[in-house]
Design a protein that fits this description.
The chain has a single domain, classed as Gcn5-related N-acetyltransferase (GNAT) (Aminopeptidase, 3-Layer(aba) Sandwich). By secondary structure, it is α+β, with helices and mostly antiparallel strands. It is globular, with a radius of gyration of 15 Å. The mean pLDDT is about 95. About 30% of the residues are buried. The chain has a five-stranded antiparallel β-sheet with strand order 1-2-3-4-5. A three-stranded antiparallel β-sheet has the order 6-8-7, covered by helices on one side. Helix 1 crosses helix 3. It comes from Aestuariibaculum suncheonense. It holds the Pfam family Acetyltransf_3. One of its GO terms (molecular function) is acyltransferase activity, transferring groups other than amino-acyl groups.
């Protein structure tokens, strides 16, 4: 039993990602949109996924009390995507992010999950501002961020990566 809380929305369970999610994480990190819009994390095997979860997800959850959540559809218990709050290297502040298996896109799950995570950021985790980054070509992500109330701030680069990223932000007082 995890010491970290699981959350719910109308249609989803948001469970802290753990090594039991390795098969799902392996599939998600190798979807075409993940590779195109987020980048290749070199997670190619079940063992790679376990290591990625341990080093990148569980360690942040232990350090900050929040992190990546595996999204489970209530109707059939399928793992359909992930959403969370991330302390990304090279980015000041906390970043909200989301990704879905292709067959679960464009069904409102991303807004439902990200809106819940945004609410938790401000009301449970005590954050005063959250950010998001995306590439210019990922217009569906940009629309979702704007629907969540985040607004475009500026173009940034993360050290070691020359790709231009669009930075979005929302402050707690702007959250309704």
């Amino acid at each position: 039993m995890s010491q970290y809380k699981t959350y719910e929305t109308e249609r989803l369970v948001l469970k802290p990602t753990d090594e039991d999610d390795s098969e799902f994480v392996l599939a998600l990190l190798n979807t075409p949109k993940w590779l195109e819009y987020i980048g290749d994390r070199q997670v190619k095997t079940f063992e790679d996924a376990q290591t990625y979860i341990k080093n990148r997800m569980s360690s942040q959850l232990e350090r900050l009390g929040f992190g990546n959540y595996t999204l489970i559809r209530k109707t059939d218990k399928f793992k359909i995507g992930s959403c969370g709050l991330y302390d990304r290297e090279g980015l000041e502040g906390i970043d909200i992010g989301f990704a879905f298996l292709p067959e679960y896109e464009k069904q409102g799950y991303a807004f439902e999950a990200a809106n819940k995570v945004k609410q938790l950021a401000f009301e449970e985790f005590g954050l005063t501002e959250i950010h998001a980054i995306t590439i210019k070509e990922n217009t569906s992500s940009q629309r979702l961020l704007e629907k969540l109330g985040l607004r475009f701030e500026k173009i940034i680069n993360i050290p070691g990566d020359d790709e231009n990223l669009l930075l979005y932000s929302i402050k707690k007082e702007e959250h309704i």
